[in-house]
Amino acid sequence: MNTIGHLINGEVRLDDNRTQDVFNPATGKVEKWVALASKATVEEAIAAAEAAFPAWRDTPPMKRARVMYRFKELLEQHAERICTLIGEEHGKISHDAAGELQRGIENVEYACGAPELLKGEHSKNVGPNIDSWSEFQPLGVVAGITPFNFPVMVPLWMLPMALVCGNCFILKPSERDPSSTLLIAQLLHEAGLPKGVLNVVNGDKEAVDTLLHDPRIQAVSFVGSTPIAEYIYSTATANGKRCQALGGAKNHAIVMPDADLDNAVNSLLGAAFGSSGERCMALSVAVAVGDAVADALVEKLQVAMKPLKVGNHTERSNDFGPVITRQHQEKVVGFISSAEAQGASVVVDGRDVIVPGFEDGFFVGATLIDKVTADMSSYKAEIFGPVLQVIRVNTMQEAMQLINAHEYGNGTCIYTRDGEAARYFSDNIQVGMVGINVPLPVPVASHSFGGWKRSLFGDLHAYGPDGVRFYTRRKTITQRWPSASVREGAEFSMPTMK
Ligand code: NAD
């Protein structure tokens, strides 16, 4: 069986440390192993990045961007292979994996604008014959730690921007589905990235802790669950590093009495069950305003959910695949059972789904739970599975209070035909990414991605303009060239414009 290694100084290699099983979640079988980097291996990767930094820092931004132009082409040429690897280890259906890759490529395209993004700010004559400018310098060696649910897109939120800004990078992908991440790192080298500028270390807590404590690492970007995000943020910042740590979510959709219900139902299906609900922007709670809306919504959802197909990634007609592990499958099923035990009504039950030919796979069928209340554990926690819960409220204010009181604030959406209500909602909701009749308001690459409250720790959001700020350090230079013809005496008061 194949062991997935690390990519250090341009070479794929193993170390003598531990390994971990990598499953195909559709078959439930271990199909590969992944090497778990030791502290020494991570330190070797950091040393390679440090050695590569001076030359990469001094490479003109246009040349760094050219690597990204070629990288984009290679990602497109190898799309089928990348999507197959995502399917084999994550379980994502091929059309969904293609969507993930495309959203990642858009970040590569944005980073191709490096010369424009890095050109800084300039003011002539801030004082007599004095000019001043701000430039954005790279930080040095930076690290990224990524989750299983987007093994290609999330690394592409980080890598293109960090690299075109002139940094060297250590990436620690998820140990559950590392192959597609390793492949894109190899493609970056094929695109012309010099050795050592990007290093991939597969691993677990040992590798992450080494990155968090090593003084050579200047900044850490993390995407994953909230408890780990809190740990990463507190440890990295305590060690003097810049850090952005994106965490978990519980995303609500308000369905107003005037909403186009058929449209809401259609878009809720994809947003709740796509990728088995394993998206940090998945809409997992529908808040129906009024019992009439709730009754109609539940009835329509029940009908629309009947034809949904769960199965293996290779079958394009499947709507979604398995969840990531047996333990996670049990956790999702446990939340459905707890909601039932606490008084909610399981209207469509995906707990016992069996996929013919894949009987040992980690599948959970699309599940709809009605009459959920805010005190239930299935409501409080992030389930991260194909489960849509319906909460019934009487007014829009009540719906908004519910959302604002939740500990997470990643994404939300309102379905309405009322522009005033939509505007009030977007102005006052305590959530970082808001959709108006748009179920998954994931910002495009030219904006930045991030939640509020316990969905993000740190000041800057991921990618887009905030990505440039995160991966650079501002330096402001004030310059005067004294002229032989204008000699001045000494000045002892604070310089001001005269
Ligand atoms: P996770 O927190 O278990 O793992 C994320 C990364 O942290 C992995 O690389 C993992 O190896 C590492 N890690 C895990 N435990 C660790 C520990 N004890 N110490 C140090 N490092 C550790 O998350 P996951 O299960 O891979 O991903 C799903 C989670 O990610 C969900 O909560 C989801 O909402 C969240 N997510 C958030 C966003 C966002 O943008 N906010 C995007 C994608 C996923």
From TrEMBL:
PROSITE patterns in UniProt: ALDEHYDE_DEHYDR_CYS
SUPFAM superfamilies reported in the protein's UniProt record: ALDH-like (SSF53720)
Coiled coil: none
Keyword set includes Cell division: no
Gene Ontology molecular function, alphabetical: methylmalonate-semialdehyde dehydrogenase (acylating, NAD) activity
GO biological process: L-valine catabolic process; thymine catabolic process
Organism superkingdom: Bacteria
Domain annotation Aldehyde dehydrogenase: ranges: 17-477
Enzyme class at the top of the EC tree: oxidoreductase
Matching CDD domains: ALDH_F6_MMSDH (cd07085)
Keywords: NAD, Oxidoreductase
Any matching Pfam family: Aldedh
TM region positions: none
InterPro entries: Ald_DH/histidinol_DH, Ald_DH_C, Ald_DH_CS_CYS, Ald_DH_N, Aldehyde_DH_dom, MeMal-semiAld_DH
Entry EC no(s): 1.2.1.27
Family annotation (NCBIfam families): MMSDH (TIGR01722)
PANTHER family referenced in this protein's UniProt entry, alphabetically: MALONATE-SEMIALDEHYDE DEHYDROGENASE
Annotated protein name in UniProt: methylmalonate-semialdehyde dehydrogenase (CoA acylating)
Biological source species: Pseudomonas putida (Arthrobacter siderocapsulatus)
